[in-house]
Design a protein that fits this description.
Blueprint: H1 11-20, E1 27-28, E2 43-54, E3 57-69, E4 75-82, H2 90-98, E5 102-105, H3 108-118, E6 127-129, H4 146-152, E7 155-156, H5 162-173, E8 176-177, E9 180-181, H6 182-190, E10 194-199, H7 207-213, E11 216-224, E12 227-235, H8 240-251, E13 256-260, H9 268-272
Amino acid sequence: MPMTNNELMPNNEKMTLEKKYGVKIIRPIYDIKRWNLDDNHPTGIAIILDIEGSLNNIRELAFVGVSYSKHDGKLYQLLFEFNDAHNMPDYMVEGIIDCADILISHNAAFDRPIFDARFPFFQNKPWACSLKNINWKNYGFKHASLGYILEKFGWHFKEHTAMSDAKALTQLLAEQFSNGYVMDKLLENARETKARVYAPYAPRIANDEFKKKGYDFNENYILSPIKRGTWYIDVAPEKAIQESDWLKDKWNVESIIVELTPQKNYTPEIIYGI
């Protein structure tokens, strides 16, 4: 059984349980100080965000600000935490957001449209999504839920408040894969410019082939007042026309091609087609 209340257990006893008996010690989020000392790399500021509620019923907006190495993604310092941003004057929120090099959430497709609608000054900021901008299956994870991934790294947290989720994601970004920090791999993928190729009104018989090629399905994309949902794939910009031609020749689909940048990704245009 995982042990969660281990703050009173000496480190040598934890190691003995883990190595000798195979008992996995699950540590509460923020139970251990993990922030690294500055090593003179160029630094950036990231704000990790989460929301509870909807645009018309925002119950909690949480911000966690951290500094990080632009060289390898190492997190340096916890700068601030706010769980009441929805109650702040807009000029204060704008001042906080203006300092950030990147905004990060675990499901930016849900979060960004709400933030952009509530705070128009969010609209030109670059975003990264830890759910989509890391291929978790390539690192051995069965799925990409935040709680599951953190447990595999040896952490647990109380979910379903904006601040606990933002703190949890901050902790995850500080972790390491075998080839680098989670934060570094997230930013590496997020800052790439890609082309999204949509396949609107594609026939159902194409579904299996779409899945094999790596297409995803966006159920929120508005095709008409009565129809939503389309398959899409993100490719290098120079491959977009080739993919579009394949859709036309194979399935008689007139594709839609949209450029994806960190400033544009996860906006209503990308998620809803509006």
